[in-house]
Design goal:
Elements: E1 32-39, H1 44-47, E2 52-57, H2 70-73, E3 79-80, H3 83-95, E4 101-104, H4 110-122, E5 129-133, H5 139-143, E6 151-154, H6 161-168, H7 173-187, E7 192-194, E8 197-207, H8 213-227, E9 232-236, H9 257-270, E10 275-277
Parallel strand pairs: 2-4, 4-5, 5-6, 6-8, 8-9, 9-10
Antiparallel strand pairs: 1-2, 1-3, 7-8
Helix pairs in contact: 3-4, 8-9
């Protein structure tokens, strides 16, 4: 696909010819997946009772130092698949009872995503497509997904450039992410939930990092002032340190109950009504799926 030959799909705009070398995302133009299976640990309106049909793509344009999926984010794992096989996987997940098809970290494969969704929709495929993203997206790339994505599940990781630079080498993340979420909300302005399952809408996730309550409150305030209760929010406490951080010792612990309670209380004070929260048990390695090629 020609878009990969001088790749400008995301804000990194690395311009790499991915037919010959790996881009910043760690991927060439080959479609590499790590896992495709039912997932039960998303927000209740995404996972439901039968599970979300999650498709994990290898590589990532963010490379957050604390990433819980770091093995595949670095492009160190996964299996090469054809576009036809990806379409088959969508159908197989539907047959297994999935409420939706959940595309996880697919930014660097948008040309494949477009072709695959168009193909299965032309065959009568009727499950909603969920776009699960860090939000480090180019608005121009997102515009190409209009009409194909039913539910956007974006992160808003950082409100401050300093944190974005320190933890994700992306000092422009706050502005790029907000512009991206603006586009997502434009495409899907109001949520539609049927029998407890979101069919259309936007759920903005924010992960509280240890010692970053003030920064997280700034993030929630920015989001609420921009979107109000037109979107859903997911306030997450599941941060799990998977290795020791010598340069960022603040990340060497989990979030405390008091930190999380403070952030949730602040969300209520802002006026946030549509929000998902987590209990302490969510911060466990057992909630991180095994990227063993299941479903591929």
């Amino acid at each position: 696909m020609t878009e990969y030959r001088s790749c400008m799909l995301c804000p990194r705009e690395c311009g790499v010819d991915r037919s010959k070398a790996k881009g910043y995302c760690g991927m060439t133009d080959k479609l590499i997946l790590a896992r495709a299976a039912l997932h039960f640990w998303e927000e209740p309106c995404i996972s439901g009772e039968r599970g979300s049909g999650t498709v994990f793509f290898s590589g990532c344009n963010m490379r957050c130092i604390y990433c819980q999926n770091h093995n595949i984010a670095l492009g160190n794992g996964g299996r090469e698949l054809s576009l036809e096989r990806l379409c088959e996987i969508y159908h197989e997940l539907r047959e297994k009872g999935a409420h939706n098809i959940n595309l996880v970290t697919a930014t660097h494969y948008i040309p494949h995503i477009i072709k695959s969704i168009e193909k299965v929709k032309s065959e009568g495929f009727d499950l909603p497509f969920v776009y699960n993203t860090s939000s480090y997206e180019s608005v121009s790339s997102l515009k190409r997904l209009e009409g194909l994505i039913d539910v956007y599940l974006p992160d808003f990781k950082y409100a401050l450039s300093a944190d974005a630079k320190k933890y994700s080498n992306a000092s422009d993340y706050p502005e790029k992410a907000l512009s991206a979420i603006d586009e997502m909300v434009r495409q899907v302005p109001l949520p539609v939930i049927e029998k407890g399952i979101m069919k259309k809408g936007v759920i903005i996730r924010h992960l509280l990092l240890p010692g970053k309550v003030i920064e997280s409150k700034i993030a929630l305030k920015k989001l609420y002032e921009r979107y109000g209760n037109r979107v859903y929010y997911s306030i997450m406490s599941q941060y799990t340190p998977l290795r020791a951080f010598e340069d960022c010792p603040e990340l060497n612990r989990r979030v405390t109950e008091n930190e999380y309670r403070s952030l949730c209380g602040y969300a209520v004070s802002l006026g946030i009504k549509n929000a998902f929260v987590q209990d302490g048990e969510s911060a466990a390695e057992s909630f991180i799926p095994e990227f063993n090629g299941e479903g591929l």
